[in-house]
Structure formats: C-alpha cells, structure tokens
Amino acid sequence: ETGVTQTPRHLVMGMTNKKSLKCEQHLGHNAMYWYKQSAKKPLELMFVYNFKEQTENNSVPSRFSPECPNSSHLFLHLHTLQPEDSALYLCASSSSTGAGANVLTFGAGSRLTVL
Amino acid sequence: GQNIDQPTEMTATEGAIVQINCTYQTSGFNGLFWYQQHAGEAPTFLSYNVLDGLEEKGRFSSFLSRSKGYSYLLLKELQMKDSASYLCAVRDGDYKLSFGAGTTVTVRA
Fold first, then answer.
1. B62: closest CA among B93, B34, B24, B30?
2. Cα dihedral value A48, A51, A53, A55, nearest 10
C-alpha cells in the first residue's frame, strides 16, 4: 500500500471516551504532521514530528496527545474531548521540515464527531 | 499571525476558465502552494511557486507576485471532475505552512 493511510475514516465518541487516530505512510518520509480541518476554516497545524521527535506543538489542548513511535507511524490519542473538537483530522508527511521541506502528502482524514 | 485570503465559492460552466485569487500577508515568504481537495478525500498537491511569474502544468497554471502578496490559480477547459475545494498555502520565513480557508469551485454542465 502506498501513500498516507488514516484509520478510522469515521469516529463518533462521547466526551468521556478515549480513542486513537492512526496514520501510516509508506513514502519513506521523515516528517509527519497532524492538521485539524473545520468547515469553512483554514487547516490548522496541530503537531509536527521530524525523525520521530516532536518539533511543533501549536498550542494544542492536552486532551489531544500525539505519539510517533517511528517515522512511518503517527497516532493522535483523544480523551475527554469537547463537541467543538468535531472536525476532520488530516495526517500528512513530507521528506523533511524547515529549509528542506517539500510538498506535503495528505491522508484522506479521520472524520471525528464528539457527542 | 499569518493572513491568507481567498474567495469562499466560485461557480463556472464546463469548458470555461476560472481564476482563483489568493492574497497573503505573512512574516517572510518561502513559497506558495496550491492544493486540490475533493469532498471526503485528501488534499492533493497542484502547484508550487517561489519566484514571480507563471507556472503552467497542463490545464492548470499558477501565478505569483511576491511584491503584491498575490497569487492565482487558473483552471482552463473546466471539467466536471474539477469541482472541488482549492487551498492556497504559504510557507513563511520560518518554513511553516499556513493555509487559506479554501475556495469551493462548482462546475456546471
């Protein structure tokens, strides 16, 4: 399988639940990203990992907890979310960050609904 | 913060041309990207401009004027499959990528 794969594609959870989103890339990229996409709003960068190390946390609430065990896998652990966290969560990867950064390759996203 | 503006919606007829404008105000500039996103799908890369001028790629062209903080994406010979959201994104002086809210293009027969 090629590209960036996200699971699950759809998730409905209550505010007290704990769930995780998974992202996997088979492109040999070293950098991975989580973005939040809400209707009619710009994509919001949440986290960046470069060679498994977190290099960016864009003031994201602690109820979102990322994990990057290796350069090919990225998780977003969710707990005690709020209804306003309902959105499309997009994972992306690229060959590097900073001055060497190139085009992002996105996954299809995980549509999250918080009840 | 970064400010990237693009129209919310545009409608055009099959076979026509549509131009999507994007204006930006960012702290530094290291390139401008256009992505296409069909409903329920991943955004996919369309074009990249870092120098002033026009980049042509088949039916799609992208233009950049750094002095004006302005870009446009030109879609020619529109097809029904071009109905999608088009995202303008700017890489700033710290090489961080900021996105506009996207322009939804609807192509009518």
1. B34
2. -40
How far, in Å, CA of A112 to CA of B13, rounded?
34
Enclosing H/E stretch for A39: none
Give burial (CB, 10 Å; 0-12/13-18/19+) of A108. buried
Angle at B60 between CA A95 and CA B88, to 5 degrees: 55
Provide the sign of the torsion angle of the four alpha carbons A11, A29, B101, B16, taken in this order: negative
Interface test with A, best of B35, B99, B103, B104 (most A CBs within 10 A): B99
pLDDT tens-digit series, residues A53-80: 998 888 999 999 999 999 999 999 999 9
Each residue's pLDDT tens digit, A80-115:
999 999 999 999 999 987 777 779 999 999 999 999
Q: Per the structure block, which two tokens stand in for A26?
A: 């088979």
Read off the amino acid at residue B5.
D
Of B42, B91, B102, the CB nearest to A106: B42
Contact criterion met (CB < 8 Å) for A45 and B8:
no
Query: Which residues sit opposite A56 in a β-bridge?
Result: A48
CA distance B7 to B74: 14
Run of H or E residues at B75? strand B70-75
Shortest distance between the Cα of A40 and any Cα of chain B, in A, equals 6
Give residue B52's identity as a one-letter amino acid code.
Answer: D
Q: Which uninterrupted H or E stretch holds B34?
A: strand B32-37
B96 touches chain A (CB under 8 A): yes
